[in-house]
Specification:
This protein has 416 residues and is of the alpha/beta class. Helices cover 45% and strands 13% of the residues. The strands form 4 sheets. A 7-stranded mixed beta sheet has the order 4-10-9-8-7-5-6, sandwiched between helices. It has a 4-stranded antiparallel beta sheet with strand order 11-12-15-14. A two-stranded parallel sheet has the order 1-13. The chain is globular. It binds D-serine (DSN). D-serine (DSN) binds next to loops.
Length: 416
Amino acid sequence: MVEAIRSVDPEVAALIEAEERRQANTIRLIASENYASSAVLSATGSVLTNKYSEGYTNKRYYQGQEVVDQIERLAIDRACDLFGAEHANVQPYSGSPANLAVYYAFCEPGDTVLGLGLPHGGHLTHGWKVNFSGRFYNAVQYSVRPDTELIDYDEVRALALEHRPKLIVAGITAYPRVVDFAAFAEIAREVGAKLLCDIAHISGLVAAGVHPSPVPHADAVSSTTHKTLRGPRGGMILCRKEHAKAINRAVFPALQGGPHNHTTAALAVALKEASTEQFKQYAQQVVTNSKVLCEGLQEAGFRLVTGGSDNHMCVVDLTPRGVFGKPVARALEKAGIVCNYNTIPYDPRKPFDPSGIRLGTPSVTSRGMKEGEMRQIASWIDRAASNMDDEAALATIAGEVAEMCAQFPAPGLPQH
Ligand code: DSN
């Protein structure tokens, strides 16, 4: 495919190849990233990008839908089967638009919504003040407990009883533990709120049965499709039949125009991949790898937020090592290990220069790395954090990283 680009635009072709090399030769620990398979990438780059299909299957505003209708139907059916859902909308462009659509379907502007605060591991769209969710709605934020750093379900209930939200959002982007969706559902029922469970980070784990599913508990479940689910960049919403009309109307025509049919096809492929035994084993290994990475880091003197991980990510408090998130993330990048700096709960430092880093194992697990490699990665992180200003030491680690990467070819990438 790059050859076709090169004949028209060598500059962009060269940049794509540079990114292929970067993705191949570095250890990617960004918890929200993954490697989509060649099949998913090919569907994303297919002629389906050429077609407009505003509307839904058998109810479109353009002719020529005999193929696209079948593709969208496949994606919907596979999503419903995989997650045990009554209805799926596979048109949201990504996770934030999916959440916006659920707010639109269930709330009026100004209504009260209750979500996890961003500094405590929530997402921008869970009511953070600079986001639409905090500007157009009366957002109340719950937090994690200062002692355990676990979601404070007592506080969620107390805030729900006090503020009577129209919508409660249960979801995380930087929280390394299982979310108790049943507990959220009980609180939502008690106060008459709708429940949105945002499983963007964990949808692959949910699909594989290694994280409890919110589907039996939630009015709507939103997700991106490119994180642990390993699909194309996109979004989807699962919901009960009773909400299907409201959710569909919110996505189109309220918020979006034509669906991205190339993404829908790639999602259908990813959902098929995610229904296999191989994917179940993958998801299990993602969690095992995360636990082992945490243990290695603890042994090296780092503090793990909540004391460890039972999903695909670890949030690392660097304070005991006397270093901070941003410089460590930069040093790690020089050492060939890519992550993001992150706040820790009740962080005394500023979000742009916080105390922690967030690490995730979806990408390295897609390359086939297991427990031994996680211990090696923990030891490289330890070495990099001890040699942050030593360019030569960091370059040496980068060389070792590239050697290990060469032994674990990443799905979807040509080998350079
Ligand atoms: N940006 C994603 C993440 O990294 O968690 C969430 O949208």
